[in-house]
């Protein structure tokens, strides 16, 4: 076994483990912990963050090489800086390198030197506004952001995600960000990049990319798109 990657997910998430293991390929395994979560409210999303150190400690029993808090909203809900705080708390609790999904997303977008973004998500309007604020405060210009207004994130079909992205794209956007680790995106990244002529970064692709780079794995992955091939 080359690497063991640890992820912490909201308990209702059924997509991150599935897509991460598909990207991992032979020789890399995905190990997960769950935090109770069945409804997106501000209170619930913030509460999850308080449970991250304890979840990380249990993941550490598996002697994973890195731990990612795999809830996009959980990293941006309290604004810039909170994502770094969570990263540090993982390391302090376990001695293992930590990261979060939104840290991976920001790093990925900066690798492309993308300043102008269009954003697609399954979120309700209040959470999209939090995401817009976070991205703006992080130095990006959000040209358009659109959500599906659902909490049944994993049930959205990939063709509907693709249609959402096509509808939110703007000609002068330098990159597309598809937010939510419980949103199925791996099957459409490559096709969207070909259609739109720009990089497509998703919560799951950025999480996996960040974890792999942190452990020294610089390989590309099937379906991962330009992020893995170029950076």
Structure, explained:
- By secondary structure, the protein is of the alpha/beta class.
- Helices cover 45% and strands 19% of the residues.
- Strands 2-1-3-4 form a 4-stranded parallel β-sheet, sandwiched between helices. A 4-stranded parallel β-sheet has the order 6-5-7-8, with helices on both faces.
- Strand 5 (116-121), helix 7 (125-137) and strand 6 form a beta-alpha-beta unit.
- The longest helix has 13 residues, at 82-94.
- The mean pLDDT is 96.
Task: Write out key terms for the chains shown.
single chain; 231 residues; alpha/beta; four-stranded parallel β-sheet; 8 strands
Strand count: 8
Order of helices and strands: EHEHHEHHEHEHEHEHEHH
Low-confidence sequence ranges: none
What integer is the average pLDDT? 96
Estimated share of beta-strand residues:
15-25%
Radius of gyration based on Cα positions:
16 Å
Q: How would you classify the helix and strand content by structural class?
A: alpha/beta
Please tally the helical runs, counting DSSP H or I stretches of 4 or more residues: 11
Cα end-to-end separation: 24 Å
Strand order of the largest sheet: 2-1-3-4
Largest sheet: 4 strands, parallel
Categorize the overall geometry. globular
**What portion of residues is helical?**
40-55%
């Amino acid at each position: 076994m080359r690497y063991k990657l640890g992820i912490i997910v909201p308990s209702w998430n059924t997509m991150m483990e599935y897509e991460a293991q598909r990207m991992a390929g032979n020789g890399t395994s995905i190990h997960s912990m769950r935090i109770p979560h069945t409804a997106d409210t501000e209170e619930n999303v913030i509460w999850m963050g308080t449970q991250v150190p304890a979840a990380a400690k249990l993941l550490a029993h598996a002697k994973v090489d890195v731990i990612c808090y795999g809830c996009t909203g959980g990293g941006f809900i309290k604004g810039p800086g909170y994502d770094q705080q969570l990263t540090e708390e993982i390391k302090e609790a376990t001695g293992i390198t930590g990261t979060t999904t939104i840290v991976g997303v920001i790093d990925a977008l900066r690798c492309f030197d993308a300043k102008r973004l269009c954003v697609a998500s399954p979120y309700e309007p209040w959470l999209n506004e939090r995401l817009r604020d976070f991205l703006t405060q992080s130095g990006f210009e959000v040209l358009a952001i659109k959500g599906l207004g659902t909490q049944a994130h994993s049930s959205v079909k990939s063709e509907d995600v693709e249609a959402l992205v096509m509808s939110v794209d703007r000609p002068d956007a330098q990159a597309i960000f598809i937010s939510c680790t419980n949103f199925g995106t791996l099957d459409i990244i490559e096709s969207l990049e070909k259609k739109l002529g720009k990089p497509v970064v998703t919560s799951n692709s950025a999480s996996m990319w960040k974890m792999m780079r942190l452990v020294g794995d610089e390989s590309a992955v099937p379906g991962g798109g330009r992020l893995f091939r170029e950076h």
